[in-house]
Amino acid sequence: MTTHQTNEQLDEQPLVTHLIELRSRLLKCLAAVLVVFLALFNWANTIYEFVAEPLQKYLPANSHMIATDVASPFLTPFKLTLFTSVFIAMPFIFYQIWAFIAPALYNRERKIALPLFGSSVVLFYAGMAFAYYVVFPLVFGFFTSVGPESVAVMTDITKYQSFVIKLFFAFGAAFEIPVATVLLISAGVLSSQQLARKRPYVVVACFVIGMLLTPPDIISQAMLAIPMWILFELGLLFGRFVRPHNIKDTADSDS
């Protein structure tokens, strides 16, 4: 009975240790977001003005953004600043994820995973920058130019915030496609040749995802789908230089 209890304690101890470490990593992530948020809170309105600039520059001279809820002038910049804090803290969050899973990886996997984590951060920010500097001007320029002349364009600030955050997340996640492609090839799930043969399905999937994640207009859908396709091809290109994990295992077992 004592031996049985001792074995159970040994089995449970690693799980408890991992849960404690996971809690510690999560608390550090929350603390980092909170610190950034407190540092940015005084500039909440400035942050909103910066994010709203792509739309405001296309509004007619007699139009402006409006707030239809009593608390919107405070809550909307507050929420946007919170999301901005998460975006800024993303490198630290990715590092905490890396530090949590790194002990369970082999040396070869660590050499691949660390550059992939760094690439994930860069690509996520690149996706957001692409949305802000390329997609937003095209979409807002189109929306504000096709409406009837008798209709004054006055966008609600809360709805605008939801719109841009959705696009930020969509493009940030879409730009992670090369990382996901390399991971699939590295893990031996699919080879680069197999993925290349599935290209027609990938192209269709890119446009379906673009349709689901963007507003119902062809411009924003195409501006998400086409970069996703290009990034998939980029992932295939880098994946050709990656040795699948199962091949490495086979080689090691033969030797």
Could you explain how this protein is built, in words?
With 255 residues, the chain is mostly helical. The protein has 11 helices and no strands. Helix 5 packs antiparallel against helix 6 (157-174).
Q: What percent of residues are in strands?
A: under 5%
Ends: how far apart? 43 Å
Low-confidence stretches: 5-11, 247-255
- In this structure, how is the largest beta sheet organized? none
Kindly state the percentage of residues in helix.
Answer: over 70%
Number of helices: 11
Mean of residue pLDDT values: 79
The rough form would be described as flat
Helix-strand category: mainly alpha
What is the radius of gyration computed over CA atoms, rounded to a whole number of angstroms? 23 Å
Task: Tally the beta strands.
Answer: 0
Order of helices and strands: HHHHHHHHHHH
Short synopsis of the structure:
79% of the residues lie in helices and 0% in strands.
